[in-house]
What does this fold into?
Amino acid sequence: MKLQLARGTRDYSPEEKIARQDLTKNLISVFERYGYAPLETPLLERMDVLAAKYAGGEAADVMKEVFKVQDQGGRELGLRFDLTVPLARYVGMNPTLKMPFKRYQIGKAYRDGPIKQGRYREFWQYDIDIVGCGTMQADAEIIRVVLAAFDTLGLDVEIKINNRKLLSAIIQAAGISKELSETVIITIDKLDKLGEKTVIKELLNKGFDKEEAQNVMKHLRLRTIEEYEALLPGNEGVQELKQLFSLLPKDERLVFMPSLARGLAYYTGPVFEVFSKELSVSLAGGGRYDDMIGNYLGGKQKVPATGIAFGFEPILEVLDQQRKIPLKKSRTQVYVIPIGNVDAAGVVEELRDDGINADVDLIGRGLTKNIKYADAYGIPYVLFVGEDELERREFKLRNLKTGKETTGTLQSLCGQLSLSW
Amino acid sequence: MKLQLARGTRDYSPEEKIARQDLTKNLISVFERYGYAPLETPLLERMDVLAAKYAGGEAADVMKEVFKVQDQGGRELGLRFDLTVPLARYVGMNPTLKMPFKRYQIGKAYRDGPIKQGRYREFWQYDIDIVGCGTMQADAEIIRVVLAAFDTLGLDVEIKINNRKLLSAIIQAAGISKELSETVIITIDKLDKLGEKTVIKELLNKGFDKEEAQNVMKHLRLRTIEEYEALLPGNEGVQELKQLFSLLPKDERLVFMPSLARGLAYYTGPVFEVFSKELSVSLAGGGRYDDMIGNYLGGKQKVPATGIAFGFEPILEVLDQQRKIPLKKSRTQVYVIPIGNVDAAGVVEELRDDGINADVDLIGRGLTKNIKYADAYGIPYVLFVGEDELERREFKLRNLKTGKETTGTLQSLCGQLSLSW
It folds into this structure.
């Protein structure tokens, strides 16, 4: 048997995992500073939940990419493709939740699609959502969190902002019926990547005539919200965009982009997408989905919602390229090396009781090999424990980077270790 | 459509998730204090990796419980049933890893089996393992980590310890051939739960004769390691047990139990299982598996390994019963309430910039409703922001528990908030 990973999945080595832990800690601290509470839902969901027409939507590309699972009872299940549909299911099943419900969720999601750079079939997603607030205040807050998050990470980004109601109006103004606007939106979403020519071709392939396609393109060429207000007076999407920008700080990272659509069918209002300035990779995306949760509740209730998903893998890839995360190989502070046939277990336990991350040779290697081992794992200090040392209760601590050695009691050395950590 | 969870899965509400976060933080700090580094492997693995005879083992019950998945390329995949098999695969694929490799991994695992109290089909596991150390030093360290972990959690436990080599010798001493010992071991493992009579019946059902079954039972009735040494002189399992106990602190929580087997086929030496003293639920279990990784490497190399898996769900259930975790509904420190038509966004941002977890009314509710909302989420403080307050830059902070109010600048109030947090 050849040892292989499932295609599109990856291992995180200790150093990559430590980097992910640090990044996660940073993002959680931002989310909690803005009042979001953690939630966890299963990775396995019932297929009817995932495939509901107001969730993934049967027509959506994403449903073709769901990993299907069957349990022993013959129930059709699937691995979740995002964290938004499960949130809607959760809210639907917990009708006594106090609104607004602001939650963050960090978890893996699955799409059995093509594999590209920074794109896997099993990937981490970091989501924040506000459920139960229909005003632009909520969308503005989501964008503020995004700004704070990328400030914390030290990444240069651009946040493109649009509104689905504006996009629908543009399409209808081009003479295309409301029923067909969804398929047009899916094509338009690729404008930034593929260019006008290819998008027009795809629209023609989908059966639209040349005039319709060209009209859509023409209307997408305007640049300011004011121009769209003149083109489409009274349009709700335009009004929402004006309000949203008025609630946000003046920040050149916030950019209105009329062709931004975001693939999924469930968006109803503002949509946003975050791009890395240097690598033009999408790092986060989201928007308002006012109908999904209400529909899960049987359509009896309006439950507005908005949110954004951060993609961990592309963020880590950009951080990696910028080398802003120095990779740590271990969190161990000191490696204890017994000299000769000495029992160092007591010394190590004492260090640990003092809150020091300490490791010890378990296989009786010689001095040189032990030092090499500690160095290979990036452990900054080694402590030597011989018979003399045990008797005098004084030990030698060596800084592996500088070579400097200090002798002292465990307690005095511990102080040094905590300081340098 | 009726909204339902996939059977055997669960949601963690914010308060349950906060409890899990705290427990995870505690366990990670223990693991890192003992020198373990984090690793992450995918939840999806290739079926041939999971089903290899030195992993799950085709005969093992666990293989019947694997959730099967197929990708678009027709590859047979499965959801992992533990974190040990993926570790062996990881080590096999990374032959330059420096030994010993000590890692912890926290992740979900899946078994499509019967659902009981505290037992789910999707469940969290917390594993630590030492790869590349064949001596009892490693097993002793694993047990020390277990003691430290349950001390940290404040749970009363008993750790039952045995050795597979002893168990095999007991079975062979009863006249049963080596080839059949695996199936006997699976039955014996239930002795503690089902009692002698039922176990003997099951052995008879499996085709063993009365004498063989009774011999096995008789040999399992001895209590001390010394008695087994007399019964089976020179047995390696007995020698390992003696050495293991000599390396451990004298602790009445450590108990030798000759019938402990642990279900999986891959164990080769010491096995251990942790039980809650009050609820007699299994909270963790593991042991030595010296052959698995070497076999993944094509049998060309010996790679000894030992480790233990903590079950998060049963631990949380026991903690819950003891009410040792007070459930926190939110990590938000202060809820900002705008009075009248005031823009409080600047004030909230200032609090957040000072590192305070702050939330704010987004939907323009009245005073009473806002206070009720903050209280429902267990947020300890509310801050009132009216026009007067904004002008004077002095605000009123109310402690919702005591009703006590303090007036001051944001900065002075922030000091108070950090202290009380």
Observations:
- The radius of gyration of chain B is 27 Å.
- Chain B is about 40% helix and 20% strand.
- Chain B touches chain A through 91 residues (CB under 8 Å).
- The CA atoms of residues 329 and 378 of chain B lie 6 Å apart.
